[in-house]
């Protein structure tokens, strides 16, 4: 079929139409990608006309599954079916879809649905959505990266000239695609000015979803190059829009947690990462993110002096990814420096690629602290020499300083008797006191926050309160009647009572 | 004209800087003139795509400036130079040929953060180093401060004390000396918590003092009770009394907060 294999810019509508009825087959039960794209574009149109961003979000939710089923022909058919007339927009869209490689079987099958062409042109949102799909499709193969970047630039320009509020959620996704392009080409740093300019505009125009997305892009940009200082400054100078979607929030909290962990602010990092886990999509849907957050959480928990729960390492999504971390946890728990060293050296490449290596290195002191705590619990008096041997320390002198520091930092209760060269350990603390209250208050605070946030996150349908009002009115009416009846009944009762 | 001026002054600075012992005063005056020239040429904070050769010269001047500030013991000036250099080290790292002084200056900056007890900044800077974590151990200029930090955090103070002589460059000495002051204070606070009493002689070795008189002045500063006849220092156990006090305000504030939140829920 030479007509179709020609460059797509010249594909003629008429020839296409002729082919379709000839090869028409009943559509398979799940909607073909083309049909899905078309219905999505229709949904977008509805979103614009009804001013209801919910439809747009629904469309974008299906983006990931749809993305895997895209190919050249699907996209080309979708475009040709959506744009009936030959407009510059259609031409521009078609020019970006790679030509050639057209597999006719797929072609005919997917375009099989008898085209009930929409009466009017799709909205600009629809156009950008199609561009987004093409972007994702181009991203799938490395040979298209150059083309992809050009398309990304053109799309961004187009969005900015269109300047429509209803475009906000789609624009956020487009920016994600822009970032992917730059990242895959390994020149993420060059995209920074572009993101900054766009972030400024977005925040001025209150495009909150876009702004959230761009802030995440910028943070990723910095953290990719380990520029935590700049990332921290960016966070302190900007406010993350409250109404941003959960996916963006999760990412943002993850980056925040990362920055704070590097700055040794472990408690704050831990809260942020917990937020990230809670906001993240379910582990099966986004395993990569889930794993990345958990890796960081485990290290941060260890640095805080806690031991992560065993169940985390049994989670089907996490089990494999966390093996290295599991070894480290075991070493810290046992307080064995040698075990820690072997785990560190055997999994160093994993930690380095996860960018947690330097954080894990910091755990060394925690291993020592746990070791000393173990000793202080099991001995009432132990010589510095023995501490040295048990913890694999280099010299007795070191042991003395280390124990002294542990006592000062409140890790253990005890005294050093220098003349005799031993450490006397005080009894363990009772389970009552201010610190218990503190732990409780932390937990209670967490629960209250959770409650408040879930209240805030509830969605109420528009105008629903009217119905409720009406219902309440009716209920009141009924109540009145009931009261009346009761009154009358009372009277009856009284009457009856009188009879008795 | 301006370019020529720059070049000749740059040569002068190089000669003055490399001379042993280097002429600090001359370097200083040359440096301030050179920086004005750099600003005129738009190279102090380069933007866009300037000539690479010019950038190398500018970086060299600033590096010398940074080292010069340490030799003259001017820390704020070092900080300024380092801030100006960071543009060259991060943004132009892929285009410029690597500088031989870069790692020593980065290491000096790390030590500076350590002596100022800015541990969080220390770690952010360390993360931003253009080296993979494993390579940090092999670079003597970087591994020196990194080891210092680790030993300080574990409490292996004697290792820090012993490593003070192993400074990889002359300039490290300056920071290391001020670091020793910090360490002494750290050790002293540990001793206050960990010991009831300590013989004078042992205290001196623990705190790295050579003469008893140094120890006595130090003990006075920290308010320790020195029993000269028995040769023992007594530490006041003041921490224990403080621990017994109930944090009343905290508890009341927390209870009020719960009450308010519950009110909101119910």
UniProtKB/TrEMBL annotation, chain A:
Residues 1-35, 104-124, 471-500 are annotated as: Disordered. PROSITE patterns: PCI (PS50250). Belongs to the proteasome subunit S3 family. This is PCI domain-containing protein. One of its GO terms (molecular function) is enzyme regulator activity. It comes from Pterulicium gracile. Transmembrane segments: none annotated. Residues 471-487 have a biased composition (Basic and acidic residues). Residues 250-430 form the PCI domain. Keywords: Proteasome. GO terms for cellular component: proteasome regulatory particle, lid subcomplex. Residues 1-12 have a biased composition (Polar residues). InterPro entries: CSN3 (IPR050756), PCI_dom (IPR000717), PSMD3_C (IPR013586), TPR-like_helical_dom_sf (IPR011990), TPR_PSMD3_N (IPR057985), WH_DNA-bd_sf (IPR036390). Residues 24-33 have a biased composition (Pro residues). Residues 488-500 have a biased composition (Acidic residues).
TrEMBL record, chain B:
GO terms for cellular component: cytosol; nucleus; proteasome regulatory particle, lid subcomplex. Residues 76-251 form the PCI domain. It comes from the Eukaryota. InterPro entries: 26S_Psome_Rpn12, CSN8_PSD8_EIF3K, PCI_dom. Keywords: Proteasome. One of its GO terms (biological process) is proteasome-mediated ubiquitin-dependent protein catabolic process. Pfam families: CSN8_PSD8_EIF3K (PF10075). The keyword Coiled coil does not apply. The keyword Protein transport does not apply. Belongs to the proteasome subunit S14 family. This is Proteasome 26S subunit. It comes from Pterulicium gracile.
């Amino acid at each position: 079929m030479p007509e179709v294999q020609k460059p797509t810019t010249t594909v003629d509508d008429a020839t296409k139409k002729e082919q379709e009825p000839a090869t028409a087959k009943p559509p398979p039960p799940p909607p073909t990608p083309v049909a899905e794209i078309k219905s999505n574009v229709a949904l977008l149109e509805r979103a614009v006309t009804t001013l209801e961003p919910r439809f747009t979000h629904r469309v974008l939710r299906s983006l990931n599954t749809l993305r895997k089923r895209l190919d050249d022909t699907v996209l080309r058919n979708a475009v040709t079916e959506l744009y009936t007339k030959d407009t510059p927009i259609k031409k521009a869209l078609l020019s970006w879809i790679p030509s050639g490689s057209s597999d006719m079987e797929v072609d005919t099958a997917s375009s099989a649905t008898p085209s009930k062409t929409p009466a009017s042109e799709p909205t600009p949102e629809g156009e950008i959505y199609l561009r987004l799909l093409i972007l994702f499709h181009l991203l799938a193969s490395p040979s298209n990266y150059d083309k992809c970047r050009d398309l990304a630039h053109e799309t961004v320009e187009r969005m900015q000239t269109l300047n429509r509020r209803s475009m906000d959620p789609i624009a956020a996704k487009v920016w994600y695609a822009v970032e992917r392009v730059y990242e895959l080409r390994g020149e993420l740093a060059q995209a920074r000015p572009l993101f900054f300019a766009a972030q400024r505009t977005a925040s001025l125009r209150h495009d909150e979803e876009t702004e959230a997305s761009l802030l995440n892009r910028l943070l990723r940009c910095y953290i990719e190059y380990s520029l935590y200082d700049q990332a921290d400054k960016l966070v302190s100078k900007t406010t993350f829009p409250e109404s941003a979607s959960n996916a963006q929030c999760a990412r943002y909290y993850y980056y925040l947690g990362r920055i704070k962990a590097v700055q040794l602010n472990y408690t704050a990092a831990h809260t942020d990462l917990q937020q990230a886990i809670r906001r993240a999509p379910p582990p099966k849907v986004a395993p990569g993110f889930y794993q990345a957050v958990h890796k960081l959480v485990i290290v941060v928990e260890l640095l805080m002096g806690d031991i992560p729960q065993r169940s985390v390492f049994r989670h089907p999504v996490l089990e494999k990814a966390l093996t290295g971390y599991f070894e480290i946890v075991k070493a810290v728990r046992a307080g064995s420096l040698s075990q820690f060293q072997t785990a560190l050296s055997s999994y160093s490449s994993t930690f380095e690629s996860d960018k947690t290596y330097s954080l894990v290195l910091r755990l060394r002191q925690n291993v020592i602290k746990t070791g000393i705590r173990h000793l202080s619990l099991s001995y009432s008096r132990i010589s510095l020499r023995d501490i040295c041997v048990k913890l694999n320390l280099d010299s007795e002198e070191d042991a003395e300083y280390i124990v002294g520091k542990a006592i000062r930092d409140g890790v253990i209760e005890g005294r050093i008797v220098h003349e005799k060269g031993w450490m006397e350990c005080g009894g363990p603390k009772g389970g009552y006191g201010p610190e218990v209250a503190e732990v409780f208050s932390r937990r209670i605070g967490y629960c209250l926050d959770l409650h408040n946030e879930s209240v805030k996150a509830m969605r109420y349908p528009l105008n629903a309160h009217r119905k409720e009002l009406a219902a309440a009115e009716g209920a009141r009416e009924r109540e009145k009647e009931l009261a009346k009846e009761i009154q009358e009944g009372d009277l009856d009762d009284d009457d009856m009572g009188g009879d008795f | 004209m301006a370019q020529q001026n720059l070049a000749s002054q740059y040569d002068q600075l190089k000669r003055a800087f490399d001379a042993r012992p280097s002429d600090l005063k001359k370097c200083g005056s040359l440096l301030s003139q050179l920086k004005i020239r750099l600003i005129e040429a738009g190279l102090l904070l380069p933007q866009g795509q300037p000539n690479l050769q010019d950038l190398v010269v500018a970086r060299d001047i600033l590096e010398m400036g940074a080292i010069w500030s340490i030799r003259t013991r001017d820390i704020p000036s070092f900080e300024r130079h380092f801030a100006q250099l960071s543009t060259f080290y991060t943004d132009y790292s892929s285009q410029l040929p690597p500088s031989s002084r870069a790692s020593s200056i980065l290491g000096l900056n790390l030590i500076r953060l350590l002596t100022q007890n800015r541990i969080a900044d220390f770690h952010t800077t360390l993360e931003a180093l253009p080296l993979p974590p494993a390579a940090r151990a092999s670079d003597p200029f970087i591994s020196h401060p990194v080891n210092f930090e680790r030993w300080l955090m574990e409490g292996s103070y004697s290792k820090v004390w012993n490593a003070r002589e192993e400074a990889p460059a002359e300039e490290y000495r300056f920071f290391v000396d001020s670091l020793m002051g910090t360490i002494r204070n750290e050790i002293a606070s540990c001793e206050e918590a960990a010991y009831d009493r300590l013989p004078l002689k042992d205290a001196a070795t623990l705190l790295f003092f050579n003469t008893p008189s140094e120890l006595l002045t130090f003990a006075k500063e920290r308010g320790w009770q020195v029993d000269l006849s028995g040769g023992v220092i007594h530490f006041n156990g003041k921490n224990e009394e403080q621990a017994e006090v109930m944090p009343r305000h905290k508890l009341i504030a927390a209870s009020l907060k719960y009450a308010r939140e519950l009110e909101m829920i119910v």
